[in-house]
Amino acid sequence: MNKIYWTLFIHNEWRLYMAATENGLSYVGSQGKPYEEMEAWLTKRFPKHELIESEKSLTPYMNELKEYIEGTRREFAMQVDLKGTDFQLAIWDALTEIPYGEKKSYSQIAELINNPTAVRAVGAAIGANPVLIAIPCHRVVAKNGALTGYRGGLEMKVKLLTLENGEE
User: Fold this and answer.
1) Is residue 74 assigned to a domain?
2) Taking the model in full, what pTM does it have?
């Protein structure tokens, strides 16, 4: 049976679950959400995997996340192991192209993948992003610049954007 390693990342006020396969980071949860949220997501997408708690296995990912939160890392070097449709994978890949501290609209992301009419589908794919922060869906806003939904909650989105803009 394949394995997925998980841990609870705790740093300052940050508390979120993380999980990785041997191929890369597979899940970063919402701030303050329970283990069950991660477990449900992982068992649906990785059905033949055993969940094993292992802080040691997640240490490289936690180190990068800690550096990001502390403002010393702007880009993630970690491998990811994502499960999604080809469309979702294309969207998630496009999100990684948004520079640190910048924002793009849903329509700009649709244009990036050469599908400008797919704005709603883009929004749905962004909402399904399994690796919060490392795949920076928090950098996507409405066309008018307004902050819109975020799987981690708007408070977490604001905190991440504030961090990236050096306002914290």
Assistant:
1) no
2) 0.92
